[in-house]
Every structure is written in C-alpha cells, then in structure tokens.
Design brief:
- By secondary structure, the chain is of the alpha/beta class.
- It folds into two domains: 233 residues, Type I PLP-dependent aspartate aminotransferase-like (Major domain) (Aspartate Aminotransferase, domain 2), CATH 3.40.640.10; 121 residues, Aspartate Aminotransferase, domain 1 (Alpha-Beta Complex), CATH 3.90.1150.
- Helix content is 40%, strand content 12%.
- The chain has eleven helices and eleven strands.
- The protein has a four-stranded mixed β-sheet. A three-stranded parallel β-sheet has the order 3-2-4, with helices on one face. It has a two-stranded antiparallel sheet with strand order 6-7.
- Helix 2 packs parallel to helix 8 and helix 3 packs across helix 4.
- The chain is globular.
C-alpha cells in the first residue's frame, strides 16, 4: 500500500505527461522556457490573482517573499512552531528573528487570539501556515496585521486547492506561497514552488529576485538568487493541471469518509465552517503515536508523523531562548499526530483496511 500513490497518478496521466516533457526536450529551452509563462498564467487564473511567479522550491518562495518585502537584520517575523522547518528557516536566512505563536488544537493552525501579543515594533511580516491542507483564519490574521501595517505571507505549501469563504489558498493575503514538491496536493517531479500576489511592485521584485536580482540579463537591481523553476517541471504541472480539481474533490471525499469512519475512535481533523480541506496529510491524534505507528507497520500500513518535534525544540533555534512548555498546544500535537495514507486514488477497500488496522492498534 502506498502512503502517497504517485505511481498510479503517473499511469493515469502518462500520455499527457510524456507528451509535455517530450515537447521540452524537442525545443530545448530547459531554463525559463515557454512552459513557465504558460503555467504561471494558469496558476494565477486559478488562484484569482494578477501574478503567479514560479520558483525553484516552496522554501525559496518564502525567502523570496521576505526579501521582496525588505525583511532583514534586526527584524522579527511571526510564524508557528508546529510546521516544517522551512517556515522559520527562511526568516533566519534573511537575517531576521523568528517569533513563534502557538496553534489552535482543532486545526493545527495559528491561534489568532495569541497573535496580537507577539507583535512588536520590530515585526515586519507574519507567516501563517495552512497546515495539512486547511487555511487558518486569514480574515482575522489580515485584520490584526493591517492594524499594525504588517504584511502577511500565507505559507500554503500544503493547502493549494483549499478555499476559505470562496477565496483560494494563496490568494487571501498580500503574498501567497506554495510548494510543488511531489507529495504535495499539486506536485511536480522534483522541487518547485510559486508565489502569488495582486501587487505589481511586489511581483516585479519577486521575479527579479528569483533570477539573480534582475529581469533583464546583465542588469541587476536587487540582491537576488538562482530561484528559477525548471521548464520540464512546469511541463509536468501543465499535464496534471486539467485533473487537479478532480483530485481536490477526491481528497475531500476521501478525507470526509475517513472522518466518518474514525470519529469516536480517535481525534479526527476538524474542518472549520467556511473552509474546504485538501488533506495534504490526513492527520489524526492518538495516544503514544510512536507505538501506534509500529503497530500499523505490522499491519503493512504506511504512516507519517508530521512533526515529531516543534521548531523551538530544534537545536538550530536554541538561541531564541524558548523552552519546552512555551507552546503547549504545539508540543501536545507533536506528540500525538499521525498521518494516514491519503491520495486521490485511495479506494474504499484500502481505506477500510487502514481504518480496521488503526482500530485494532488502538485497542
């Protein structure tokens, strides 16, 4: 059984994927070829913003966003401690200081009630993470940020395709960021990511930063980086994109069925009213998740733990001065979460087998 079944996905779309890749091999424009502009146009229209800028990875997208906003040494950027390290490491990479805010237990997303207290005169950006495939309360986060004149960057690496009150993930903040890592809801066959904004000036800056600080060759207006998206990876996304909305719908159907079967057995994901969830990971809470993972492995059920340690527990962030106990909800989640197999091709028989194995493992 596959945890994320990319093999079946490729077989389903093989003709289109192979044709798109072959076209790149024929024209030979492997860097910033025509497929880049084509997928950016489609992505911007899908999200509902003026600008989509593809980049080399989801991590690069966050760093480029911070650089475009002018965040640097002496500044602070707020994010959550229960997330993949990219959300915070990019803050350090531009010379700023990560400031953590705890999560809500029901959604695993930033607790807006704790946001205001974390803002200081040095706060120059907020990076809320749309963890596991559901957006946090971005309306409230935007409102709090606006009162202080602080830009918001949604880290939508796991939530591309999700919506909140009709607005798509990556289109509900000043800048949206996502990842096209293969295991993400919309993935390519390597690293990749994208940035989204309505702001023309920010879009120009982000395009320049991804190509060594300039949009015209040998003319560099900003300190940039090599953050370009590969043409072949853009071709893969173009082949997959016509099927993406079907995959989102399947993820929602399969996630809802999981919750129906597991409610009362363990703590299932809560979908907030007005939200849709794309279940990048279908994540439940269980006691002693390490033992449950081992038991499921004996039943040949693959699992994942996202994330076994919070960021303030990582040695690299020890200098921030946080201690265990500072973020109790994040710490509790890190000791309880377990993610079950989730992909659009998961059939009822396999799902029933997973549910039966989890029930047996909990007894």
């Amino acid at each position: 059984m596959e945890f994320i079944d990319l093999k079946t996905q490729y077989r389903r779309y093989q003709v289109a994927v192979d044709a798109r890749i072959h076209k790149v091999l024929e024209h030979g424009h492997y860097i910033m070829g025509p497929e880049i502009a084509e997928i950016e146009t489609q992505l911007a229209a899908y999200v509902g913003v003026k600008h989509a800028i593809t980049v080399a990875s989801g991590t690069d997208s966050l760093e480029i966003a911070l650089r475009a906003l002018g965040v640097g040494f002496g500044d602070e950027v707020i994010t959550v401690p229960f997330t993949w390290i990219s959300s915070a490491e990019v803050i350090s990479q531009v010379g700023a200081k990560p400031v953590f805010v705890d999560i809500e237990p029901a959604t695993f997303n930033l607790d807006v009630s704790k946001l205001e207290a974390a803002i200081t005169p040095r706060t120059k950006a907020i990076i809320p993470v749309s963890l596991f495939g559901q957006m946090p309360d971005l309306h409230a986060i935007n409102a709090t940020a606006a009162r202080h004149g602080i830009p918001v960057i949604e880290d939508g690496a796991q939530s591309f395709g999700a919506t909140q009150k009709g607005r798509r993930s990556c289109g509900a903040t000043l800048i949206g960021s996502t990842s096209f890592f293969p295991a993400k809801p919309f993935g390519c066959y390597g690293d990749g990511g994208a940035l989204f904004t309505q702001d023309d000036r920010l879009a120009d800056a982000m395009r320049a930063i991804r190509t060594h600080g300039g949009v015209k060759r040998h003319h560099h207006t900003l300190v940039g980086m090599n953050g370009r998206f590969d043409t072949i990876q853009a071709a893969v996304l173009l082949a997959k994109f016509p099927h993406f909305e079907w995959e989102v719908n399947e993820r929602q159907r399969i996630g809802a069925r999981y919750s129906e079967l597991l409610r009362g057995v363990c703590v299932v994901p809560e979908v907030v009213s007005g939200n849709t969830h794309v279940y990048a990971q279908y994540t439940v809470r269980v006691p002693n998740h390490d033992a449950i993972t081992d038991r499921l492995k004996s039943h040949l059920i693959p699992t994942g733990i996202y994330y076994p340690k919070c960021l303030h527990e990582q040695p690299v962030f020890a200098s921030l001065g946080y201690v265990f106990g500072d973020f109790p909800e994040s710490e509790k989640a890190s000791r309880e979460v377990i993610s079950l197999p989730m992909h659009p091709f998961l059939n009822h028989a396999d799902q029933d087998q997973i549910v039966a194995a989890l029930k047996a493992s909990l007894n």
